[in-house]
């Protein structure tokens, strides 16, 4: 599907399988989410533009590639999205960070915003939105809409798991936002959770229910 990338790297797939196991400890789940976030960051930034700059090695001057333009903005959707953040910041420590606080109404499954804080110059930066699960996509759609309202023009979305329903919803509302995911699962259940999935990523990450 256009605008959708499934990251099939063996390390990503192996770590995802470990995370699906319901007997995995909270500590291990959190560590693996961090590691997978780093691996997914490699994929979502694969085509960043480069420019040649003049440097001097210990032996000779040369022209060498550096990332061109302003730094990235990582935008985790609270709370589970922060599980990706440390791994991505390990790769791009100079990135700015936006925080988008959303929770899912248990009755309507609609996304309800409770916090938003982002850099002022979103229009000049590539914004990478992250949330482990793209289920109904209500939160993802709301987050991207909010970022666009604040001026963001180039946005990418990264998740660990996606449901076909969530992908369809996201592509319908924001066809200009490409999606990266480690896997596309079968479907949503009656409560809007991904099947077979891995449960509630936030609860498993923080040890809550």
With helices defined by DSSP (H or I, 4 residues minimum), what is the helix count? 6
Largest sheet: 9 strands, mixed
Q: Name the CATH class.
A: Alpha Beta
Report the span from N to C terminus. Answer: 35 Å
Low-confidence stretches: none
From the spread of the alpha carbons, the general shape counts as globular
SS elements, strand count:
13
- Measured by DSSP, the beta-strand proportion falls in 25-35%
Q: Name the helix and strand elements from N-terminus to C-terminus, one letter apiece.
A: EHHEEEHEEEEEHEHEEEH
What count of domains describes the coordinates? Answer: 1
What structural keywords apply?
209 residues, Rossmann fold, 13 strands, 9-stranded mixed β-sheet, alpha/beta, globular
Concise account of the structure shown:
The chain is α/β, with parallel strands linked by helices. It is built from six helices and 13 strands.
Written description of the protein model:
This protein has 209 residues and is α/β, with parallel strands linked by helices. It has one domain (4-206): Rossmann fold (3-Layer(aba) Sandwich). It has 6 helices and 13 strands. It has helices at residues 10-20, 26-44, 82-91, 138-149, 164-173, 201-206, and strands spanning 4-6, 50-56, 61-67, 73-78, 96-97, 99-104, 111-117, 126-130, 133-134, 154-162, 179-184, 187-188, 194-195. Strands 1, 4, 5, 6, 7, 8, 9, 10 and 11 form a 9-stranded mixed sheet that branches. Strands 2-3 form a two-stranded antiparallel ribbon. Strand 4, helix 3 (82-91) and strand 5 (96-97) form a beta-alpha-beta unit. Helix 1 (10-20) packs antiparallel against helix 2 and helix 2 (26-44) packs across helix 3. The longest helix has 19 residues, at 26-44. The protein starts with a strand and ends with a helix.
């Amino acid at each position: 599907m256009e605008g959708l990338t499934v990251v099939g790297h063996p390390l990503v797939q192996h770590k995802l399988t470990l995370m699906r196991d319901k007997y995995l400890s909270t500590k291990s789940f959190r560590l693996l989410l961090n590691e997978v976030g780093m691996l997914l960051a490699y994929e979502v930034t694969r085509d960043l533009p480069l420019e040649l700059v003049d440097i001097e090695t210990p032996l000779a001057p040369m022209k060498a590639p550096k990332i061109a333009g302003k730094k990235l903005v990582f935008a985790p959707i609270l709370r589970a999205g922060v599980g990706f953040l440390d791994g991505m910041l390990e790769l791009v420590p100079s990135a700015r960070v936006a925080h988008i606080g959303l929770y899912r109404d248990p009755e309507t499954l609609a996304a309800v915003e409770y916090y938003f804080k982002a850099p002022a110059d979103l229009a000049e930066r590539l914004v990478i939105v992250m949330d482990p699960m793209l289920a109904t996509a209500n939160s993802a759609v709301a987050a991207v809409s909010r970022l666009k309202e604040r001026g963001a023009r180039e946005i990418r979305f990264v998740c660990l798991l996606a449901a076909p329903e969530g992908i369809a919803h996201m592509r319908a509302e924001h066809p200009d936002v490409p999606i990266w995911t480690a896997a596309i699962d079968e479907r949503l259940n009656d409560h809007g959770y991904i099947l077979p999935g891995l449960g509630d990523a936030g609860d498993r990450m923080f040890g809550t229910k």
